[in-house]
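Q: My hope is that you can spare some time for a protein that puzzles me. Underneath my words sits a plain record pairing an amino acid chain with its backbone structure tokens. Those tokens are not coordinates but codes from a learned vocabulary of shapes. Thank you; the sequence and its tokens follow:
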Amino acid sequence: MDIFNILRYMHPNAQFSMGDTYDSIVWDSQDIPKPTLQEIESAYPDYQFYLFKKQAGKFIQDFIDNKAQEKDYGNGIHCASYINSTNLQWKQEAQSFVTWRDAVWLYAYSELALIQAGDKPVPTIEEFIQSLPELNW
């Protein structure tokens, strides 16, 4: 368990220094009480979710952009911009892409809510990305 970063997550404005253990923490914030080890340990699941969510957003967007690049669009935004194209192929690709992109984000937010509620364990990023809906152009 990464006590230092969990403390930073719990109290971003707190002033403290520490060595390798809880007992080595020097708590310099007079207005914020030093959390107990039990409080730090109980914050770990929230901290784990916070880290996962932070990473997941970037990886999901990369997943979406990479899918658009399969059809030589620069990224997801470029692909979606063809939704009103006069070129029928580009228009159909953009429509399929936007429908899929929305499904990806809806699924991701739904799964994140389940994880945050404790109904599902925090997966690895790889497991999460593999569970996203697929687009078959």
